[in-house]
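dumping this here before i forget
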Amino acid sequence: MTVTTAGAGDRMGPRAAGGGRWRGRAIDLLPAAVVFVGVLVAWELIVGALALKAFILPQPSAILAALRDNWAAGGRFALSTSAAATLLEALGGLAIGTVVGVVVAFISSRWVTARGVLLPIAVAAGAIPIIAFAPLFNNWFGVLNPLSKAMMAAVLVFFPVMANVIRGLVQVPPAAVELMRSYAASEWTILRKVRIPNALPYFFTALRLGTTLSLIGAVVGEYFGGASFVLGRIVVQSASALRYDVTWAAIFLMAGTGIALYLAISVIERLAIPWHSSVRGIDSR
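structure:
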């Protein structure tokens, strides 16, 4: 009889695997970080060497200084308050657009007649330039009401969520559906056990896209009027005051907020569907 004794290396297997996954992720992100830092350094050196005026292109150091000096709520351009207000509008629009998109997707996937009626309307709404909605929403909800900006964001979020969820609910493996029906499963059981799990990866893909679109919609809505402390108005006011370093600081803040939201959705996706091949493929490195 042979007795196998687990060594310390075997006992540390899961922990070591977890560390290896995080090291793999860090290695994957390293090229992007190097390129980002390299672009900032080149930007700083080129602008300084060419002695470009700030209204053409400020240096990254001037932008970071403006971000630091105007971060507190007591400054003329309170970027922290502005970022919080715009983020609230974007998240509100993301929630509204996601809920409506999912509801329309479920209705359209269940009834062919509803799909024929709702899809052309959804496509038409997605094809209209977003700036066309700004005067309408400002008139309906009020220029200073954050809901008018949230609705701008919701319009942008709605179409990708609806289209992706419909695709996930409809494009299921026929063999899986036939197998469920062979066990006399109801349509509700097929929806819960087959269609919804199949649609979740599509949903999170649309949600990642929706995070950036919601910020775009909120900021575009702010350009057409709103409270003076939101990011869109900060961009307009600082550019009018020739404070282009503040303008670029607000733009950098928008980009950073979008990246943070995208990463947050990616983390939620890993926790929600760890069984999916895309997540397992990343984690198994």
